[in-house]
């Protein structure tokens, strides 16, 4: 698959998606009908980001064939802004999750894009320029703000580096 995969691409490729996730050959990615509408990610990432505490997740782990059958309804719910993340995998083992792009942003703690802007939250660029009031880190000031114990540790480290 190249570019943004369609719902049909994903529906036909679910076992291969699991294989790529298992091998670590792919990360979370968006798919949809010409625009990012949903995100596929590993269950491990979902769990690491606190997904089970942020969303209602059913007790059932869908098999790829069952998900392929239900995917149109899952996408309709995602487009309507309703529905819960769908956990799926093989042999009842949670391996991957499908959620809407809005749910993925919530999972990661990202802001929503401005109204009228469609973005792919899995490849969203972030500003990396310093803030206007930024200044270089002063280690001595930082240690002082952390307290005497941190200042003592810093002094010990300096003595070890410069005997």
The beta-strand count equals: 4
Separate helix tally:
7
* N-to-C order of helices and strands: HEEHHHEEHHH
What structural category arises from helix and sheet content? Answer: alpha+beta
Q: What does this molecule look like?
A:
The protein has 163 residues and is α+β, with helices and mostly antiparallel strands. Helix content is 45%, strand content 10%. The chain is built from seven helices and four strands, in the order αββαααββααα. Strands 1-2-4-3 form a four-stranded antiparallel sheet. Strand 1 (29-31) and strand 2 form a beta hairpin. The longest helix is centred in the middle third of the chain and has 17 residues, at 64-80. The termini are far apart. The mean pLDDT is 90.
Please supply descriptive tags for the structure shown above.
163 residues, single chain, four-stranded antiparallel sheet
Topology:
Blueprint: H1 7-22, E1 29-31, E2 38-42, H2 43-48, H3 51-54, H4 64-80, E3 86-88, E4 96-100, H5 101-108, H6 139-146, H7 148-161
In short:
With 163 residues, this protein is an alpha+beta fold. It has helices at 7-22, 43-48, 51-54, 64-80, 101-108, 139-146, 148-161, and strands at 29-31, 38-42, 86-88, 96-100. It contains seven helices and four strands.
